[in-house]
Q: What sequence folds into this?
C-alpha cells in the first residue's frame, strides 16, 4: 500500500508538466516561424510593392529586405546579452510584442519610407525573440528531451522556407499587405499565451551591459556598404560616391573591430574567430548565404518581371527548391558521418553553383519553366539542404559556455551575407530596358552568385582540412582555450 502511495505523487507532476511544455514549445515555435517566414514571403511580395508604390525603383525597395537584415544582424548579439542580464522571458515577450506591432505598421504603410522604418522596428523585435526562444525552450525541457527539442526548433526555419513562397504568393494575390497582417493574430496569441506559460528566469544583475554603440557602428558599416552597392549601377561603379562609400564602410568596420577587441561585452567576441572550425564554418556560411539570398531574389524577380508570372504562380515555381531543403538536411546526417561536414558542405555549394550555372546558360526571355527554371531550382534546393545546416552545425564547435554567443555570431554572419548578396544583385541587375537587357543584367548577377558559391566551397574545404587535422590530433571538438 505504501508503494502505491509513493508512486502516485511522482507520476502526477510529470503528467501535469507535459501539457505546459507543449504550450511553451507552441508559443516559441509560432514566434520563430513568423519571424523566419518574413524572410521568404517578402521576397515574393517585392514586385507587387513596386507596382503599388509607383516610381519606386528596385534599388529603393531593396531596403525593405536589407533594412530588416542589417538591423537584425547588428542587434542579435546585444539582444541576447541583454536577455542574459534582465531575463529571457521578459526580453522574448517584449521582442514578440515589438515584432507584432511593427508588422501591423508595415501593413499600414502609406509610403516606402514608412515601410522601411517599420521593417527596421520589426527586425529589432526579431533580434530580441530569436536568441531568447532557444534559451526558454531549454529551460522548459528536461535534459533527456533537449536534443529532440533543439532539432524541432531548428527545423522551423526549414518549414518556413518551404511554405514561404507559396503562402506569400497566396497572400499577395489578395494584397501585398497581407504578408505582414498574417503575423498580427499569431503574434498577439503568442504574447497572451506566452505570458502565462513561459518559464520565468532571473537575469544576471551584475553582468556587463551589451555594446550598443558597437551595434551602431556595425549597422553604419553594413548600411554604407549596402548603399554603395545598390546605387553602383546608377552612380557608376568607380564613381567618387561609390568608392567613398566603400572606403567609409571599411573605416567603420575597422573602428567596430577595434572596439570589439576592448569592450567587456562586445557584439563579436574576436577570440572566437581564432577557433579554426568556427572561423572556417562562419566564413563559408557568410559566403553561401550571400549566394542564397541573391538566388532567391533573382528567381522571384525573373518569374514576375520577365516571364510575367503572377505572385501565386511565382510562389509555386520557386517552392520545389525550398521544399527539398528539410528532407535533404535530415538525410545529410548520414553523409556527414561518412564524409565529414566540410566535404558535405563543399558538395552542397558545388551543386548550388551548378543550379545557378544552369540558369545562366538555359534560361531565355520566353517562359520555359520545366526545362529552364525547374532544374536549377532543384539543384539549388539540394545544395542548400546539404550545405547550410552542415555549416551552421559545424559553427557550434565551441566550448558549451560559448555556444549561445557562437550561434548568435553565426546567425549574424549569415544576415550580413544576405544583405551583401541582395545589394550586389540589385546593383548588377540595374534598371534594364527590355527583356534582352534584363537577361544580360540577370546573367551578371548569376555569375556573381556562382563566384560566391565557389568561394564558399573553398571555405568548406578549409573546414574539412581543419576537421581532419583535429581528428588526427585526437581533438574531436576544438574549444576556446583560456588564453585565447
A:
Amino acid at each position: 500500500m505504501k508503494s502505491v502511495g509513493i508512486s502516485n505523487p511522482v507520476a502526477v507532476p510529470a503528467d501535469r508538466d507535459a501539457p505546459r511544455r507543449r504550450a511553451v514549445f507552441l508559443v516559441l515555435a509560432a514566434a520563430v516561424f513568423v519571424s523566419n517566414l518574413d524572410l521568404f514571403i517578402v521576397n515574393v511580395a517585392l514586385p507587387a510593392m513596386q507596382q503599388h508604390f509607383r516610381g519606386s525603383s528596385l534599388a529603393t525597395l531593396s531596403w525593405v529586405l536589407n533594412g530588416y537584415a542589417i538591423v537584425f544582424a547588428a542587434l542579435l548579439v546585444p539582444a541576447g546579452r541583454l536577455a542574459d542580464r534582465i531575463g529571457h522571458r521578459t526580453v522574448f515577450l517584449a521582442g514578440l510584442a515589438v515584432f507584432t506591432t511593427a508588422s501591423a505598421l508595415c501593413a499600414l504603410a502609406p509610403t516606402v519610407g514608412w515601410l522601411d522604418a517599420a521593417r527596421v522596428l520589426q527586425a529589432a523585435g526579431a533580434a530580441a525573440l530569436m536568441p531568447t526562444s532557444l534559451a526558454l525552450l531549454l529551460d522548459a525541457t528536461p535534459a533527456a528531451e533537449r536534443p529532440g527539442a533543439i532539432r524541432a526548433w531548428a527545423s522551423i526555419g526549414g518549414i518556413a522556407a518551404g511554405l514561404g513562397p507559396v503562402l506569400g504568393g497566396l497572400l499577395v494575390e489578395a494584397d501585398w499587405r497581407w504578408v505582414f497582417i498574417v503575423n498580427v493574430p499569431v503574434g498577439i496569441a503568442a504574447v497572451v499565451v506566452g505570458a502565462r506559460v513561459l518559464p520565468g528566469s532571473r537575469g544576471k544583475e551584475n553582468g556587463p551591459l551589451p555594446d550598443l554603440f558597437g551595434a551602431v557602428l556595425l549597422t553604419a558599416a553594413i548600411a554604407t556598404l549596402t548603399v554603395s552597392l545598390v546605387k553602383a549601377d546608377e552612380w557608376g561603379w568607380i564613381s567618387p560616391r561609390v568608392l567613398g562609400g566603400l572606403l567609409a564602410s571599411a573605416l567603420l568596420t575597422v573602428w567596430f573591430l577595434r572596439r570589439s577587441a576592448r569592450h567587456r561585452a562586445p557584439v563579436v567576441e574576436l577570440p572566437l574567430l581564432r577557433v579554426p572550425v568556427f572561423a572556417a564554418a562562419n566564413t563559408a556560411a557568410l559566403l553561401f548565404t550571400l549566394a542564397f539570398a541573391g538566388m532567391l531574389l533573382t528567381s522571384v524577380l525573373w518569374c514576375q518581371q520577365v516571364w510575367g508570372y503572377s505572385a501565386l504562380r511565382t510562389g509555386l515555381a520557386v517552392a520545389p527548391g525550398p521544399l527539398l531543403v528539410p528532407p535533404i538536411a535530415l538525410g545529410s546526417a548520414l553523409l556527414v558521418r561518412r564524409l565529414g561536414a566540410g566535404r558535405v558542405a563543399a558538395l552542397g555549394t558545388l551543386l548550388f553553383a551548378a543550379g545557378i550555372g544552369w540558369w545562366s546558360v538555359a534560361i531565355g526571355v520566353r517562359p520555359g519553366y520545366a526545362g529552364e527554371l525547374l532544374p536549377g531550382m532543384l539543384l539549388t534546393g539540394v545544395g542548400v539542404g546539404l550545405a547550410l545546416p552542415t555549416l551552421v552545425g559545424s559553427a557550434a564547435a565551441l566550448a558549451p559556455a560559448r555556444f549561445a554567443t557562437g550561434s548568435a555570431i553565426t546567425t549574424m554572419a549569415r544576415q550580413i551575407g544576405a544583405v551583401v548578396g541582395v545589394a550586389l544583385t540589385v546593383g548588377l541587375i540595374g534598371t534594364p530596358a527590355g527583356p534582352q537587357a534584363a537577361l544580360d543584367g540577370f546573367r551578371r548577377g548569376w555569375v556573381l552568385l556562382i563566384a560566391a558559391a565557389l568561394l564558399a566551397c573553398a571555405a568548406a574545404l578549409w573546414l574539412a582540412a581543419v576537421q581532419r587535422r583535429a581528428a588526427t590530433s585526437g581533438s574531436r571538438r576544438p574549444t576556446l582555450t583560456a588564453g585565447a
Observations:
- Confidence is low (pLDDT under 50) at residues 1-15, 475-484.
- The chain is about 80% helix and 0% strand.
- The radius of gyration is 23 Å.
